[in-house]
Design goal:
The protein has five helices and three strands; from the N terminus they run H-H-H-E-E-E-H-H. It is α+β, with helices and mostly antiparallel strands. Strand 2 and strand 3 form a beta hairpin.
């Protein structure tokens, strides 16, 4: 069962990487999913629902939804468990989940890729890309907030929510 859990984690990381490539553009020289035929993909995905459900139960997850996109096409979509425990409402492919801090990983990856491609610089001021966003500096005389400060959570921005996730 531990092997299945690791397989699911690798699959999730692969799906995340494919999604990020779609957002940021594939790395130079990359084309599609090299060496993966539709048949190979189908054979990998064939046992996926049973593995996901077993892992969901083992990890005591209430519910989850999963989509895998390859070359801009959804090759798998599924939902497992419940979206709402109190009302017994099952999870669906359209269920919306709170993602909280998970987005930080995607944002940092996208920022790193954009830096590698020379599209942005870590020392660039935030206002270059969001001119309307001018957060008040926490101390007088501080220079404008940079992308590096945002990525490292050192910009001194106030919390946007009173709820601790």
């Amino acid at each position: 069962m531990a092997r299945d859990h690791h397989s699911l984690m690798l699959l999730a990381m692969l799906a995340s990487t494919v999604s990020m490539a779609a957002v940021c553009g594939a790395p130079p020289g990359a084309a599609g999913a090299p060496g993966l035929s539709r048949e190979a993909i189908a054979s990998v995905l064939d046992g996926l629902p049973a593995r996901v459900e077993a892992s969901r139960q083992q990890d005591r997850l209430v519910g989850l939804s999963l989509a895998i996109v390859l070359d801009g096409e959804i090759v798998y979509r599924g939902a497992f468990g419940l979206a709402d425990v109190e009302n017994g409402r099952p999870a669906t492919a359209a269920t919306i989940y709170p993602v909280a801090s998970v987005t930080k990983l995607f944002t940092a990856t996208m920022l790193a890729q954009m830096c590698e491609r020379g599209r942005v610089g870590l020392e660039d001021p935030l206002q270059r890309y969001l001119p309307e966003c001018r957060p008040a500096p926490p101390f007088p005389g501080m220079p404008p907030t940079t992308l590096r400060q945002l990525a490292a959570h050192t910009a001194g921005l106030p919390r946007d929510a009173a709820v601790n996730f």
